[in-house]
Amino acid sequence: MLMEYHNPVLLEESVSGLAIKKNGVYVDVTFGGGGHSRKILQHLGPEGKLFAFDQDKDALLNTVDDHRFTLINENFRFMKRFLRFHGIKSVDGILADFGVSSYQFDAPERGFSIRFDAPLDMRMNQDEEVSAKTIINSYSEEDLKRLFWEYGELRNAPALARTIVTARVDQPIQTTFELKNLLNKYLPRGRQNKILAQIYQAIRIEVNNELEVLKSFLISSKEVLKTDGRLSVISYHSLEDRLVKRFIRNGMFEGEPERDMFGNYTVPFKKIGKLIVPTKEEIKINNRARSAKLRIAQKL
Fold first, then answer.
1. Where are the beta strands (DSSP E) in the chain?
2. Which residues in 60-71 are b (16+ Cβ under 10 Å) and which e?
3. Measured between alpha carbons, how far is 193 from 114 in angstroms, rounded to an integer?
4. What percent of the chain is helix, strand and coil (3-state, nearest 5)?
5. Distance in angstroms (rounded) separating the CA atoms of residues 139 and 172
6. How many Å from the N-terminal Cα to the C-terminal Cα in the chain?
7. pTM value?
8. How do residues 3-50 score in pLDDT, each as one tens digit?
9. Which domains does the chain have, with CATH numbers?
């Protein structure tokens, strides 16, 4: 049974950014509904290969029946390890789309959406032990404040953390709506959904360790891409995009890259083109594309 995932964001732009070679080897590290993978396969010849990653078991139902295609049910932070397992040491291109899929948002039991009352979950990988419920009911006030400040960029992070810690003394906070109702006084009229989405984003990033996974992936991409290989990355919030932008520019997440004996920076990538965002037409068709940013780079 094919699971209903979202329309792939920036599909044409992200795939064309790979400059696909007919018989090349490519990786789609965020398979989801398979839209980007199917598009890549259209450009590959009979000897080409595509490896895809998705840690969500539900994504396996969307697998593609094609001898050139291999779907790996693992977190993409382990890309290098599993490519080696399949005998692949280097690849011609890597595509990543970091958005939470529409399927995950629209499945109430997954707990990703602000629209449904559901158990506090938010795990991309259902086999992981730590869920949103774990974090909300066990993190210290200081740790909750940190994640709301760093991952949600919320000015009232201290008040949010204090309210949660005080409320859970009486009974655990179990569902998304329990959390929403508890924090309702911090949701300004007219901006309720925006602030709530930032709160959920912060918890989701912590549950799935998303920024550390992103860093591991970018470092691995530098190691497995061939010279002139392409990296095509779609991000959805400033925390992700900042890391991608810095890594493409400097080959590192903080500080400045080293210089060679002539004073030139030694960096692993060069930027290809400008930042790409969805057109008004695409956003009209798929509202979830509105915050997407695509950056393309080439391995030096």
1. 25-28, 49-53, 69-72, 91-97, 225-235, 269-276, 293-299
2. eebbeeeebbbb
3. 8
4. 45, 15, 40
5. 12
6. 42
7. 0.91
8. 455 579 999 999 999 999 999 999 999 999 899 999 999 999 999 999
9. 11-102+210-299 (3.40.50.150), 107-208 (1.10.150.170)
